[in-house]
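Attaching the record inline, Q. Sequence:
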Amino acid sequence: FIDGRNVYVEDSTGAICVYLNAALSTLNLGDCVRAVGTRATYKNLPELSGVDQTNEEQFAVLSTGNALPLQDVTVAELLADTNAYICERVAITGAVMGAVNNSGNTPITQDGSEINIYRLPAAVTAVEGDTVDVISVVGMYNSIQLRVAQAEDVTVTNHPVETETPEPTETPEPTETPAPTETPAPDGDVNLDGSVEATDALLALRFALEMQIPTEENIAHGDMDLSGAIEATDALIILRMTMGIQ
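Structure, as predicted:
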């Protein structure tokens, strides 16, 4: 990991931050270097300080394109034994990204344990809520922090899909079914004068003989046998009613 004058180096014995007198633009990840300086500590970060990058006796690139060391750890392990991993390159899998802050701390949480990534590269596409795998070096500035070298070191393994809550469907008000209209029983009052007399029987007979055309109301009162029309039998029934024998 290279951050200006801070160069994190690691070998089989451990790791440390080499603090150069000035940034070296030609230095790349994967370079194998030799550094000579003074052992120091800054904000709890172990350093090799006072290294003059222009002096080959103090700093030299021995080879390039080397495979970078990497070990799998959990956030809980880092928090429990920070000194065992300080300045080393580690991989954390299945962490959940918190609120992204590219100029400050971006928290990640794994199984209930939380740690901060300091100055997450702006090119990282992960957003809050994403599940990610992170490759970083373990840094220190009074307390532990992770430092990510490049955007490719943060891989999104799960991006939650937001589902829209459907609008509640309004239940229509129940409609009242109108009560069926009762059809009155025929009463023989064919002429609709409010009483049943011989004139009603005579009018019914005229309707039966098609001498007159009845209205629906005439039929409703004069169709005594409910045949659908006023016939001679209806006239006879009405006549019998007027005589008191029906």
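The first helix runs from residue 75 to 80. The CA atoms of residues 178 and 184 lie 18 Å apart.

More tomorrow.
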